[in-house]
Design brief:
Tick-borne Encephalitis virus Glycoprotein, domain 1
Length: 187
């Protein structure tokens, strides 16, 4: 009888559906992601890059005009997703990332937020002419990368002077159709 009394709570826990719901991951749960590695999110899901304490939330699909895979189109179309990025639980930005539309240089599919870049890889499923995609079916692949400390250095050429930030570091001139660089700027 004592064994039955000990097993009753265990059997009850396993048989009652409301307890089993507690064991399943709820919608919108945060998943782990690695800096510089691709991760996937459904709408209203969040990824946490623990090493940088950055979270990315896939908020919505604001446009999906991609040409269905079973149709020939003049224009390939595009898909735009809205994402939120946070650092240390502080809001950094909410912005749109767009894939497609001939975005060869990545200016639409990647954005800078603070010291990080976020890039949209793909958005699945791909449209078909005979079906409608439910918002709950969208899955976006993204990558968060940290901006290299050296990548923010910008060289500016103005009036033949080569500058890095506010410091002049040399002179440039055109001689015999060649660019000549002199590291010691003329006074």
């Amino acid at each position: 009888m004592q064994i039955l009394a000990l097993l009753f709570p265990v059997v009850l826990f396993l048989l009652i559906p409301s307890y089993q719901i507690l064991l399943a991951a709820p919608d919108g749960q945060t998943s782990d992601a690695k800096l510089g590695s691709q991760f996937q999110l459904k709408i209203n899901q969040t990824a946490l890059v623990r090493t940088a304490n950055v979270t990315v939330t896939f908020l919505n699909v604001t446009e999906d005009s991609r040409c269905p895979s079973d149709v020939v189109c003049v224009w390939q179309g595009q898909v735009t997703v809205k994402v939120k990025i946070m650092k240390d639980n502080q809001g950094m930005a909410i912005f749109d990332l767009t894939a497609g539309a001939g975005d060869n240089n990545g200016s639409l599919s990647s954005k800078r937020s603070g010291k990080f870049y976020i890039r949209l890889g793909s958005v699945e499923p791909y449209p078909k002419s005979n079906s409608t995609i439910s918002y709950s079916d969208y899955l976006a692949s993204m990558i968060v990368s940290k901006i290299n400390a050296n990548s923010s250095r910008v060289l500016v050429i103005a009036d033949g002077k080569l500058n890095s930030g506010s410091k002049q570091i040399g002179d440039l001139s055109l001689t015999n159709n060649s660019i000549v660089y002199r590291s010691e700027p003329e006074s």
